[in-house]
């Protein structure tokens, strides 16, 4: 999801010597350095938190006597992030990304502090939910900042910086979090991160306010346009300015033909009949907000029912389904869950791939700690090679020579992911070396690198320009919703087979816990879901 600066802003500032100098710079040039370092550092800290929390989570769950609700800890984050993403998209388009970014980081930090100081599992899960809301606000707002603050030639570079921000945390994060957990306690993994956000925020926020604040239809604060140059604004069918990008939740007008765009650029724009202070402010799309809230509440009720396996849980499960189904149908492309060829299957594949992989990965450290007696540091280190392997897969799919074989490459990627997931629980057998997990997961991350990046490429290829924003939002919703639902399903299976008792099992490096079947009940179904994703890859190309 990205909201880009209006066309007229560039026209108005073409002759500005400051802008000419900026266009000759890279993302680390003097004009962009503070902003680039600031927003990439925010992504770096979010990535570090994701890797670190996964390492500390088994110890936290055992101390809070909540291993049976282990899956809920992760799914609560993804559930609230769904609402946060939709809200941030509309908030950014209507008011600019500064508000949702600031609010999102505040909520993210508050959630970390709440979880880090929790004395009961339900408070810990509540903190994760608050953190997820903040994460959803932040991630969308950051993409809007990139769209508004950077010229098109620099956007691939800053996006590459975002991707690279996950490599170092994937290696250092588990080691650092394991060391902190063992020496200081798991709570410091949560309460220490908010302090680290202050510096990158101090660098980024002033630049965001100058370059990317305000509604989409208005230029961001910055150098004043020359009085002899009038900005050009391309009208949409309803007469409102049309941004040079597709905001989430809206269908922008198609771009005009080159001749029309040239004519618009040379023609003065009549003044608005109302001063800006009296002009009506566009409002949020309440229907999409309601649908997003329905997805979050419905998924949350289904997760609650999955964790509390009693007959009375049928009631919240039924209400959850009643809220979830119409919301999903309203926000995702028609035919998504029937794997209709083309765009619906691309959106479905994103959810299948991300959900199966994240649900399985969430239980890897817990299995290694409780069943094979590893320390949190070593358990987290088993996932450390994943960041580099994922980046390698993304690099491979970006090569021009593999473009004709993209669908076949994605099929291979999903088969590799399924094989990795089904291999991981083999370490429940004492004779299987523990390093098998690290090797298998590196291959799984390579497969994910092939698939996840390719779904984004295919989505834009199959989307009309006026639908790119809406379809991109649908891709993120499919990703987050599948994470939440499959984590809830995995957590329910884990609890039903006695996984909660794993937290009370005393293990040694040579011994295993008493409930290996609970882990098998998580990994094997997720491998089956990933294998279904391999079938979905055969339906990505539309029939000709």
Automatic annotation (TrEMBL):
PANTHER family assigned to the protein according to its UniProt record, in alphabetical order: MAJOR FACILITATOR SUPERFAMILY, MULTIDRUG-EFFLUX TRANSPORTER RV1634-RELATED
Region entry Disordered, spans: 214-281
Subcellular location: Cell membrane
Spans traversing the lipid bilayer: 37-61, 67-89, 101-123, 129-146, 158-180, 186-205, 289-306, 312-332, 339-358, 378-397, 409-429, 435-460, 481-503, 515-536
Matching PROSITE patterns: MFS
Protein name stated in the entry: MFS transporter
Domain Major facilitator superfamily (MFS) profile: 35-544
């Amino acid at each position: 999801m990205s909201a880009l600066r209006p066309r007229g802003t560039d026209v108005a500032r073409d002759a500005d010597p400051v802008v000419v100098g900026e266009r000759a710079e890279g993302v680390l040039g003097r004009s962009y350095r503070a902003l680039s370092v600031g927003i990439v550092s925010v992504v770096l800290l979010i990535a570090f938190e994701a890797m670190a929390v996964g390492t500390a989570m088994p110890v936290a769950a055992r101390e809070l006597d909540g291993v049976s609700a282990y899956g809920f800890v992760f799914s609560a984050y993804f559930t609230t992030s769904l609402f946060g993403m939709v809200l941030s998209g509309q908030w950014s388009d209507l008011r600019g990304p500064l508000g949702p970014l600031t609010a999102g980081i505040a909520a993210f930090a508050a959630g970390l502090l709440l979880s880090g100081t929790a004395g009961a599992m339900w408070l810990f899960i509540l903190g994760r939910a608050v953190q997820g809301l903040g994460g959803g606000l932040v991630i969308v707002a950051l993409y809007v900042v990139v769209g508004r603050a950077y010229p098109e030639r620099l956007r691939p570079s800053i996006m590459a910086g975002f991707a690279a921000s996950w490599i170092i945390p994937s290696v250092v994060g588990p080691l650092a979090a394991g060391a902190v957990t063992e020496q200081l306690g798991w709570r410091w993994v949560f309460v220490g991160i908010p302090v680290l956000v202050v510096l990158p925020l101090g660098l980024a926020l002033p630049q965001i306010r100058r370059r990317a604040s305000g509604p989409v239809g208005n230029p961001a604060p910055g150098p004043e346009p020359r009085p002899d140059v009038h900005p050009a604004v391309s009208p949409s069918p309803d007469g409102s300015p049309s941004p040079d990008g597709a905001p989430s939740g809206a269908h922008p007008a198609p771009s005009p033909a080159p001749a029309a765009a040239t004519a618009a650029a040379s023609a003065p724009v009549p003044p608005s009949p109302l001063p800006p202070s009296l002009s009506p402010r566009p409002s949020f799309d309440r229907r999409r907000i309601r649908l997003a809230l329905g997805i979050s509440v419905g998924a949350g009720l289904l997760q609650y029912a999955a964790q509390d396996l009693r007959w009375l849980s049928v009631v919240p499960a039924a209400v959850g389904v009643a809220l979830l189904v119409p919301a999903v149908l309203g926000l995702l492309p028609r035919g998504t869950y029937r794997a209709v060829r083309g765009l619906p299957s691309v959106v479905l594949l994103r959810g299948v791939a991300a959900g199966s992989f994240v649900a399985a990965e969430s239980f890897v450290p817990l299995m290694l700690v409780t069943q094979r007696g590893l320390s949190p540091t070593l358990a987290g280190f088993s996932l450390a090679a994943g960041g580099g392997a994922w980046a390698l897969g993304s690099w491979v799919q970006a090569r021009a020579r593999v473009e004709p074989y993209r669908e076949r490459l994605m099929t291979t990627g999903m088969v590799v992911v399924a094989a990795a997931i089904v291999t991981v629980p083999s370490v429940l057998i004492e004779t299987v070396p523990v390093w098998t997990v690290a090797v298998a997961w590196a291959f799984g991350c390579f497969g994910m690198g092939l698939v996840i990046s390719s779904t984004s490429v295919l989505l834009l290829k199959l989307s009309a320009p006026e639908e790119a924003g809406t379809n991109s939002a649908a891709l993120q919703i499919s990703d987050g919703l599948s994470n939440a639902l499959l984590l809830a399903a995995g957590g329910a299976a884990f609890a039903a087979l006695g996984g909660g008792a794993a937290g009370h099992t005393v293990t040694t490096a040579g011994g295993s816990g008493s409930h290996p079947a609970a882990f098998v009940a998580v990994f094997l179904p997720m491998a089956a879901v990933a294998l279904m994703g391999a079938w979905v890859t055969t339906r990505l190309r539309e029939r000709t």
